[in-house]
Design brief:
mainly alpha; Ferritin; 6 helices; YciF; Ferritin-like domain-containing protein
Length: 194
Amino acid sequence: MPQSKSAKTTTKKRTASMSKTANAGAGANDSMLKEFFEDSLKDIYWAEKHIVKTLPKMKKAASSEELKQAFDLHTEQSKEHVARLEQVFGYLEKAPRGKKCEAIEGITKEGESIIEETEEGTSTRDVGLIMAAQKVEHYEIATYGGLAQLAETLGLTECAELLRQTLEEEKETDTQLTDIAESSINYEAAEEMA
């Protein structure tokens, strides 16, 4: 007797769930994957610490009070992200150590050039600062998403939970920056004469 549509769906869900359970921790003994995971943690750890140093400079360059507050909030969140990464290193029984993140260094240098190339006190500068900050956010979103999945694959559930928590906060920050840009700054910049 053929299965009904709902029975097929239930069977597919059960099979997917069993497959997920069977694969949980599948890479735990895969030393190359775990080494890659730990190396990637060092990269984002360095990046977060660098971001903590860079955000106050962006705040100082911004003219919008709302944007300045967003940079303050993100600085505090980034400090929490550093502490959370230190917890992840703790679960791995490794000392927290950073490895220079070329991507974040490049993105923050681009942000510095935006400050140099735009006029102080303009909404155009604020637009540039938002774009630079969102480039950082998108890098972090990609990194934390990948790391959370790798942690899950390696059976490091506690690590995966911490990384997902940070991932969600990075997504929220990205959305907040978009909202700030769309609420007024982009429109104000459009009216500034060259």
